[in-house]
UniProtKB/TrEMBL annotation:
The active site is at K12, D133. Residues 66-141 form the GHMP kinase N-terminal domain. This is 4-diphosphocytidyl-2-C-methyl-D-erythritol kinase. Pathway: Isoprenoid biosynthesis; isopentenyl diphosphate biosynthesis via DXP pathway; isopentenyl diphosphate from 1-deoxy-D-xylulose 5-phosphate: step 3/6. It comes from Deinococcus ruber. Catalyzes the phosphorylation of the position 2 hydroxy group of 4-diphosphocytidyl-2C-methyl-D-erythritol. Transmembrane segments: none annotated.
Length: 278
């Protein structure tokens, strides 16, 4: 058994997010193209007699109030494992930012424990019970997510280079969906082939985020972030997920890196990164 496993927990963006309507139980029917990025959190997972969690880089719960702890507990129970794990979460992504950080951390925890304590456990079922975005992070590469996000179809996309900007605002996903429910402005499916073609040709992407209008109406800093990305010469600016991180695409990796550095200088209080598809 390895002494310590180190796992990268990637962020994601949504290359478009359509909310088709409401489902029973308060869930939403989604149609979204999710892409893992080469920026994210990190975890260290070691075998131990009991389960413990430490968090570095953010003030987060270290008990069942943390999705990582719940994921670990769920796996150990499902595996019938009497031992535990010592988990250290190095939090590098902003909180409640639409980048899927908590979901990715949970999925990475499941994968790490499955390696530490192999057992006939249905990871996808555990992931779905933990949250709609968690199953996506069990797999590598882009995927079209449908249903509540648990129905995944792997996709092949051209490389992409982008800049992320988070203005420091935490947005609750529950709030973002509630604001959409209040307007009932549900949206049609995404033009996934059109998105792929635009990525391949460097053209503006024909996408939208159904949650963006409601979030931006209550958080003007979202609109300011989108405007800053456009003014910097990037294209197809969009809010990711339920916000508050926004992104836009560059034509090259060098352009993304140079633009991110320039934006960080002009917006020192924002979290800004150049990123690519993992």
């Amino acid at each position: 058994m390895p002494s310590t496993l180190r796992r990268f927990a990637p962020a994601k963006i949504n290359l478009g997010l359509s909310v088709l309507g409401l489902l029973p139980g308060g869930y939403h029917a989604l149609h979204t193209l999710m892409v893992p990025l080469d920026v994210g959190d990190e975890l260290e997972v070691s075998p131990a007699d009991t389960l413990s969690l430490r968090v570095q880089g953010a003030d987060l719960p270290t008990d069942a109030g943390n999705l990582v702890y719940r994921a670990a507990r769920a796996y150990l129970d499902a595996a019938g494992e009497g031992a535990g794990a010592d988990i250290v979460l190095h939090k590098r992504l902003p909180l409640a930012s639409g980048l899927g950080g908590g979901s990715s951390d949970a999925a990475s925890t499941l994968l790490a424990l499955a390696e530490l304590y192999p057992a006939a456990v249905d990871l996808h079922a555990l992931a779905t019970a933990l949250g709609a975005d968690v199953p996506f992070f069990l797999h590598s590469g882009p995927a079209l997510a449908e249903g509540i996000g648990e129905r995944l179809t792997p996709m092949t996309l051209p490389p992409l280079h982008l800049v992320l900007i988070n203005p420091g605002t935490a947005v609750s996903a529950a709030d973002a969906y509630r604001w959409l429910d209040e307007t009932q402005q549900f949206t049609p499916p995404l033009d996934v082939p059109g998105i792929g073609t635009a990525l391949a040709t460097g053209q503006p992407l024909p996408y939208f985020n159904a949650l963006q209008a409601g979030v931006a109406a209550r958080h003007p800093e979202i609109g300011a972030a989108l405007a800053a990305l456009s003014a910097a010469g990037l294209h197809s600016p969009l809010m990711s997920g339920s916000g508050s991180t926004c992104f836009a695409l560059a034509h090259t990796r060098a352009q993304a890196q140079e633009t991110a550095a320039e934006l960080q200088n002009s917006h020192p209080d924002s979290w800004i990164r150049a990123a690519g598809m993992l």
